[in-house]
Amino acid sequence: MMNELRNISKEMLNNCVTVEERDKFGLINRILQDDKCFQKMKIQTAYKLLSDLGFKTEDIKKIYNDLIFN
Amino acid sequence: MNFIIVKDTGDIDYDILNTIAHFSDEQIEQFIESIKLKNRYNSVGGGWAKFRYSDYDENMALLDGSKVHNRIASISLSEFIEKINNLFAFEEFDLIDKLKRVTSKIDVEKMFIDALANDKYNSNFYNICFQILKSGETFDKFLNYDQNFEIFGENFTQEDYVLELSKILGITTSEINNTNSIYNYPILNQEMLNRYLELRNIINVDIKVLGDEPFGEEGCFAYYPSRQQEIDKDWQVNQKLLNYVMDDMKPDYTLLDKVCHIYIKLCYALRYSNVYKVYEYGTDYMKERQEAISLDNNEVICSEFAILCAHIFNQLDDRLEARCVAPDGWGHEAVGILIRDKNIRIDFEAINVNNGFNDLGRAKLGLPFAGIHYICDRNNEFKESFEKVYNNFRKENKVETGNLISAYEQLVSQKDFVIDTSQNLTEFVERMRIKNVIGNELLNSFMFLEKIGYFGDIKYAFVGEDRKITFTERTDIESLMKFLDGLEENIIICNDNNYYLLRLNDCQVYLMKKEALNALFDNDKMFYIDEDHTIEGIRSSR
Fold it and tell me: Nearest residue on chain A to B398, judged by CA atoms?
């Protein structure tokens, strides 16, 4: 799952247009290098990060649970 | 995101999201007319006009109700259009169609020819500029410039045309070697854009840009002449700071690598000072202030950084010349370097005011820098060098994930997702049961997840069942251990007047009525393990 997120993040970083987007996805890219990153951030931050990666709200909870419990 | 566009006369305010959305078709036409400006060509910033652009903070307002601007920057019309273009990605409002109409209605040819004539270039010159991009025939002739003087005029060179085209397109000279910035340029069709890019590859405008005044008006930043003396003044960089910056420089580094290394290390070591420092001391050079900058006293303002950085650069090599430069001649300062034998001109804007996230912060987080302006780096020598050195630096200075997460939290919206306590408690016990996690391990898991907010906004307290004698009443180790072994420890969780009982020994969670919990306490079937940590409204029997 983490590798999948990394790939999505990398693709989104490559497609950024604005500086703000590049900043955000640059950060996400680096955060996701840490296998344990989701254990280190608040659930709200994690939900927002998954939302930024393009996941729909209804899928975010399941993905997050899989990340946090596995 | 919001835009406030103020035409440079300052007489019209456009709040794009809130105002244009309510424009009638007729008003949109008026708006379009208003941005078809005549005689507003600005030779410094490029584009046809300057607008002020700002984001404002939705969560803040001044006492008079006006909005608080996060930042204000001057942008050219082309940037303005690009920003509108970027908004299209949101596709949420019906105003998108209206905004698209704004951009589609701009008559590029009319703007080229009518708007731009000035003392230096007449309208015919601009007509040719447009034809070079529009007509394949004129484009081909332009490539054979020497045989077609009669069309292009003996007074002008190919470089004149290409440089002027760049300015017309709103591309400042700092961006000329960074063509990425124009790929999304919305008012040229693809064919015209391709021709421009081809010209940029063929015609070397570096010579023109570097010219006799490499730090002058042709560059992104105006040369700050009064600073040179201050850079060269006989003052000493703090020795520990200098050692920190220079000591781990790799022996095989080239001159360009060394420049990159110094800039990165300075950004890593220094912090941006609060604005009060400017008010207190001003931006004038003070020897004591420059010499006092150290690893401990590391807060700087833009001018201090520029003077310090240029001073160190100038000690490196005779081939390199460093200056303080200032955007548009106002108070903000950056460092410009020139390496003439390589045709390289770079500006370093460490404390980049038009971007809230400056290079001092970016270095510490290992993020891409935003303050390096490639004025001339035609062969990407500097760019490649910078990437190499920064990658080395990032490998050696592993950034804590916690810092990255904090930085990310600063960037994202404050809007919170709804956390369903009941659903997450159920999910938690189900997942834990599958893993056969109970007792103390379950307790640890609960506390960890509570810390990251997994259960939402809850209060919790530890309770025991069927108390015979409290923990604190036991004194001898043996009975204490027996007590702990046999203890049925549970957790009461409260969220918005909903009460849950989490049983640790069998990993079950129950939704409880408040009365039922109170009855358990009243009947001495339940007690708080720690009387100092209780749930309000759930009484202890003691």
Answer: A30
